[in-house]
Amino acid sequence: MTTTAPAPAPAAVRVVPWALTAALVATAIAYPLASGSFRDTVSWGIVLLGSALSVAHAGLSRGARTGVGVLVLVALVSIAFESVGVATGFPYGSYSYSDVLGPTLLGVPFLVPLAWLMMAWPSWLLGEVLARPVRASRRRPARIVWAAAVFAAWDVVLDPQLVQAGYWTWADPTPGLPGIDTVPLTNLAGWLLAGLVLMTLLDLLVERTARAPRTGPGAPLFALAWMTLGGALAHVGWLDLPGSAAWGAGLGAAVLVVLAVQHRRAGRP
Question: Pfam families from the entry (predicted)?
């Protein structure tokens, strides 16, 4: 019996995500070296490239319906959570956005849903990878929990940086994680809750719309790793944020250890 090898994916399916990732990394490197209004421009560049990477990879790898679905779903969930958060303080704690971020919808600057989009799809992909060793009957909840945890952990690094940039301010930033005195623990709890809701919906979306992946998750996962571990380096080397640098390095290293253990176990006879 002969089998037919799957047709190779078009070059664009492989090249476009990596080209966006390269542009994202280059822009992220520029952030700690910039200052003033140019740094604000770089922030917009990072978020626009990161969100474009998420939509492009989801669409090219899993199909156009999945790409559009990721865009719409993340936009709706992010605006819902953030507008309630600004109005009531739930679930993150009381905070307010500055005027630097420009136009808003329901009190939420347009940049914020794009930042969610940048973070959401790579977090789901990493959750999928981390959940692969789990037995099939438990794989979905494991994937959702892992993805939500990655989503929240990413914000542990990102939030102190953006508070420092003056994009938003917390009414009461204490108590916070050790070494981070500008962001309250309620924010982490809120991101975990939001992550569980969002990743559950993303998981259902992928199940109902996606075809078999046409390319691997390498580009978004590399972007996630760079933004976390590279961000930690920028925090300690240029931005004077040693606490979030330590947390970013520690959380990133923990994920790498889990992946290494899984790889070692998978290779055993």
Answer: Caroten_synth
Q: Where are the domains of the chain?
A: 12-262
Tell me, what's the pLDDT at 251?
Answer: 94
Helix (H) or strand (E) holding 108: strand 108-109
Query: Is this prediction's pTM over 0.90?
Result: yes
CA dist 209 and 227 (Å) reads: 28
Whether the CB-CB separation of 97 and 190 falls below 8 Å is answered with: no
- CB contact burial 130-162 (16+ within 10 A = b; e otherwise): bbeeeeeeeeeebbbbbbbbbbbbbbbbbbbbb
Dihedral sign (CA 223, 229, 257, 264): positive
- What was the pLDDT predicted at 252? 92
CA distance 9 to 214: 6
Q: Which residues of 21-50 are buried (b: 16+ CB within 10 A; e: fewer)?
A: bebbbebbeebbeeeeeeebebbebbbbbb
| Residue located via tokens 């922030």 | 43
